[in-house]
Design goal:
Blueprint (H helix, E strand, L loop, with lengths): L1 H21 L4 E8 L4 H19 L8 E8 L4 H12 L6 E2 L4 H14 L3 E3 L15 E3 L4 H14 L4 E7 L2 H16 L3 E7 L5 H11 L6 E5 L7 H8 L8 E4 L1 H9 L5 H5 L5 E5 L5 H15 L9 H24 L4 E2 L2 H4 L13 E2 L2 H9 L2 E4 L2 E4 L11 E7 L2 E9 L3 E3 L45 E6 L9 E2 L6 E2 L1 H12 L6 E6 L8 H9 L5 E2 L7 H4 L3 E2 L4 E3 L1 E6 L16 H22 L10 H14 L12 H30 L10 H6 L4 E4 L4 H8 L7 E4 L2 H10 L8 E5 H8 L5 E4 L6 E3 L2 E2 L4 H16 L1 H10 L5 H6 L12 H36 L7 H17 L2 H11 L2 H8 L1
Helix pairs in contact: 2-12, 3-4, 5-6, 7-8, 12-14, 15-25, 18-19, 18-20, 18-28, 20-28
């Protein structure tokens, strides 16, 4: 009987134990560790408490299980935050909400990993918290890597290439600014980093901002913790750094600060004029509006002491995400179990009761439930990606104007900048182009709508240091004038004209580089720009590969290339050498003048000279034979008319001058010294063992020795055009050189006064001269733009002409292959004189003939019957009668007039 009762007792115990194990627990503990008295904490605490209250009242979730909240104040201290974490873990919490500080999150995450308790933060934005090192860390806010991508896009949108990043030197600050640096590097932009201590004061801010003025950029990205006093901007205003020369960009700490404060000091707010910032985008919804109304009531009854900000909304949603996950977990596992870690049993301490800490046996399962959460909360869609971060929701771009906050656009990683909120844009737009980017007009510091330049080159106290080569040869390009510290030359004029087109003032100071006894080494000049001895270098500086690796060059302002200069063969002795004294233009004019004289003389002699009469074919032959025979003085025909003889005198004088000039020029061409050179191109020059000259200080020495592998023993340094000439005349066998390799502009100047030397072949390299600037100097871009404008307007060519074309441009003289050729410009006066005499003679002849024709027609009308004369006959035949009249011999015309005047003839006519 007793045995039967014993088995019955065991059976009932088993049934009761199974029933209890299948029931949900009456309560579940969660913890929260964050800084209560902070901009974020003052909004997060009432939001978390409200969320717990709403969950416990909602019968649709947890189904009778109460959610208990244990909160500890981290007080912005990693040590106290860690203690707070241990204190809530002693309560056997299944999850910890918080912290808001990334530094504290790093420490608590290690504890959460050991006890397998999920840590869900609504405000820790450090990008490194997403690493595999922290598998139990989940984030319900945007990571700074995402925010910094938005900031980098904003900087790139307005075209700034250099910025200054101001950040707090803690884990969050360092890692966040590093993320921005990585994003800017993708945009080919550069950032100077200026750090503040964690507990910075106004003195530290002032010193840092003064230090930043020594840098070129004027675009500031402020990445600090929320600061109700807005100290950075108020001090920047005191330092006059809030004018239209500056750009101030702020991460979402600024919007969080402004959203959290009911009444901001007007003085502090006025310092924000023109600041542009980011705010995490929260879509509008009825839930959000209802909670905002509820928040007002909470402020009135004292349960909320600040305005609601983005992090407060995310804190509320974080609690709901944990509650949903616990509900799903209990539906599956029914119960929550903890186990004692073996390692903690061995630790003996009287203060920290580490032995009471338990490992959450199903922590990984609850973590998976949290990561599978998908619902719409007050802050938008609550859904996690593979990095355990909330799905990106985008950012608002805000602008502070006239003591108020204006949203000027939105940013999302799939669409870039847009005037439409991210949730209203449909489809995947990852491949958006820059043309699609749009933002509203922004009011910048100083109240201007024009985009600030964002950097300064120099100020009057620290002008730009420009190194200028102190040349001792070819000084027309650039040099110092007689140790007067005055720099002038073609290159200097180009720079000064380009500087005028740069849309801002560029204070500068030229500093001569060189000893004044020899041309300086240009590679050393470029190296001094790289090493910050000079800010820039202006002069005849060739743009070559090795130099572009260490400095930035402007757009080339002069085309250059290496050419070979050597004694040249004057190839005059050819079958057509007799044509060389005159240019083609001159030969054409001479031929035309012979034709003109032939026609003029024929007109003047045709009526009086029997040799110019006869059949048309004979007249044409006679006409041209007479004209061309005057050249050799073999013409058999003689001129009879006074006008013809007058024209012939002038014509023969013109022929005398032309033939004498032709003879002299041809003699010079045929007797000029014949210089020879077997060099045809660079390959034939390299193949010889002859010495080669190069210009002192130029890059040519390195190019010939390192690129063309010419032995350095063959290379002879030459400094001046005089040394060029002497070395070429001596030749390779007389202690000189066989040829000189130099840049084309120098060679053109040298050949201006030389006829015995010439360029062999074509330039075998192509290049240009430019101005050198330090790496990533914005001035290089603006000077390049100015040089292009100078080229388009023709000013670049006019500057060159002023320096090198006073007696004809070098290239024009170089293109003239034969300096002994005679041009039309040398004879146009004689041709003009001959033409005037010919025209005067023709006019006098025509006037005389017209008078004779009129007299003839009157006589004819007197003898004819009036009825026979008709106006139609006169008009149609008068021209033919005139030409027939001209064709008559002068003697016949005179005889006709004599017969009409004879009285006998009159009597017979009357009869």
């Amino acid at each position: 009987m007793m045995a039967k009762s014993f088995f019955s007792f065991i059976f009932i115990g088993v049934i009761l134990n199974g029933f209890v194990s299948c029931q949900r627990p009456k309560f579940v503990n969660i913890g929260a560790v964050f800084t209560f008295d902070s901009v974020i904490g003052r909004a997060a605490r009432p939001a978390i408490e409200a969320a717990v209250s709403d969950i416990n009242k909602d019968t649709r979730i947890l189904k009778g299980t109460e959610l208990r909240l244990f909160m500890e104040d981290a007080k912005c201290n990693i040590f106290l935050g860690s203690i707070g974490a241990f204190q809530v873990l002693e309560k056997h919490v299944v999850a910890i909400i918080g912290p808001q500080s990334s530094g504290i999150a790093h420490m608590i995450s290690q504890i959460a990993n050991g006890l397998q308790v999920p840590l869900i933060s609504y405000a820790a934005t450090d990008p490194t918290l997403s690493a595999l090192q922290f598998p139990f860390f989940v984030r319900t806010t945007q990571s700074d890597s995402y925010q910094m991508a938005a900031m980098a896009d904003l900087i790139d949108f307005y075209g700034w290439k250099e910025v200054i990043g101001i950040y707090v030197d803690d884990d969050s600050g360092r890692n966040g600014i590093a993320a921005l640096d990585d994003e800017l590097e993708k945009k080919m932009a550069k950032m100077y980093k200026l750090r503040l201590s964690v507990n910075f004061d106004e003195t530290e801010i002032m010193n840092l901002l003064k230090q930043s003025k020594l840098l070129g950029p004027r675009v500031y990205v402020v990445f600090v913790n929320p600061d109700p006093k807005l100290r950075i901007f108020t001090i920047a205003q005191k330092l006059q750094m809030m004018d239209d020369n500056y750009v101030w960009l702020a991460t979402d700490w600024l919007s969080t600060t402004l959203d959290s404060i009911s009444h901001i000091n007007q003085t502090s707010f006025s310092a924000l004029q023109g600041v542009v910032g980011l705010r995490q985008h929260i879509p509008d919804s009825s839930q959000k509006k209802a909670f905002l109304s509820r928040w007002k009531l909470m402020q009135q009854n004292g349960s909320a002491s600040s305005e609601l900000n983005t992090y407060g909304l995310q804190a509320y949603d974080t609690v709901w995400a944990v509650a949903y996950a616990i509900d799903w977990f209990l539906n599956e596992f029914k119960n929550i179990t903890f186990s004692s870690p073996d390692k903690l049993h061995d630790i003996k301490t009287s203060h920290l009761r580490l032995g009471e800490l338990k490992v959450f046996s199903n922590g990984s399962s609850l973590l998976n439930k949290i990561l599978q959460t998908n619902f719409t909360g007050l802050s938008g869609r609550m859904q996690f990606n593979n990095d355990r971060n909330i799905e990106n929701g985008g950012f608002d771009v805000i602008n502070i104007e006239n003591m108020s906050i204006h949203t000027v656009g939105y940013w999302a990683n799939i669409s870039g900048f847009s005037l439409l909120a991210p949730e209203t844009r449909q489809g995947d737009q990852t491949n958006y182009s820059r043309v699609d980017q749009k933002l509203q007009k922004i009011i910048w510091p100083g109240g201007t709508l024009e985009r600030p330049r964002g950097w300064v080159i120099a100020d009057n106290e620290k002008p730009l240091r420009i190194g200028v080569p102190h040349r001792v040869s070819f000084v027309d390009f650039v040099t110092e004038v007689n140790k007067s510290h005055k720099i002038e030359g073609y290159c200097i004029d180009v720079f000064l004209e380009a500087r005028k087109l740069v849309p801002y003032d560029v204070p500068y100071r030229f500093e001569a580089f060189g000893d004044g006894r020899s041309n300086p080494n240009y590679n050393e000049l470029i190296r001094m720009v790289e090493e910050d001895v000079f800010d820039a270098a202006v002069g005849d500086i060739a743009i070559i590969t090795n130099r572009t690796k260490i400095v930035d060059f402007s757009q080339p302002y002069a085309s250059t290339g290496l050419v070979i200069v050597a004694p040249v063969r004057n190839s005059k002795s050819s079958a057509w050498v007799f044509l060389k004294p005159f240019t083609v233009e001159m030969w054409c004019v001479i031929a035309a003048s012979f034709v003109m004289i032939a026609v003029v003389i024929w007109i003047l002699e045709h009526r009086v000279n029997d040799e110019f009469r006869g059949p048309p074919r004979r007249q044409i032959i006679t006409m041209f034979m007479f004209s061309f025979s005057t050249l050799f003085k073999t013409n058999q025909e003689t001129t009879v008319s006074p006008l013809g003889r007058m024209v012939m005198v002038v014509w023969l004088f013109l022929l005398l001058v032309i033939t004498a000039s032709y003879t002299a020029s041809l003699t010079s061409i045929l007797t000029v010294q014949q210089l020879s050179s077997p060099i045809t191109d660079i390959d034939s020059l390299i193949a010889t063992n002859w010495p080669i000259g190069y210009q002192e200080g130029s890059f040519v020495y390195g190019y010939l020795s390192e690129s063309l592998y010419i032995p350095r023993s063959r290379l002879i340094s030459l400094g001046s055009p005089g040394e060029y000439e002497k070395a070429l005349r001596l030749g390779p066998n007389g202690g000189g050189v066989a040829a000189i390799i130099a840049e084309l502009p120098y060679v053109e100047i040298f050949l201006t006064h030389q006829s015995e030397f010439g360029i062999i072949g074509r330039p075998f390299t192509r290049g240009g001269w430019g101005f050198a600037f330090q790496r990533e100097s914005p001035l290089a871009v603006d000077i390049s733009t100015a040089i292009l404008k100078l080229s388009e307007t023709g000013e670049l060519q006019r500057i060159r002409n002023r320096w090198f074309c006073k007696q004809g441009c070098p290239e024009d003289k170089r293109q003239n292959s034969d300096p002994n050729q005679l041009h039309l410009t040398s004879f146009w006066g004689l041709y003009l004189l001959c033409g005037i005499f010919a025209i005067v003679a023709l006019l006098a002849f025509l006037l005389r003939v017209v008078r004779q024709f009129v007299r003839y027609k009157r006589r004819q009308m007197q003898l004819a019957s009036p009825s026979v004369i008709s106006s139609n006959t006169r008009c149609s035949q008068v021209i033919f009668h005139f030409f027939d009249f001209i064709d008559e011999k002068e003697e016949a015309i005179k005889k006709m007039f004599t017969q009409h005047e004879n009285p006998t003839s009159h009597t017979s006519l009357e009869r």
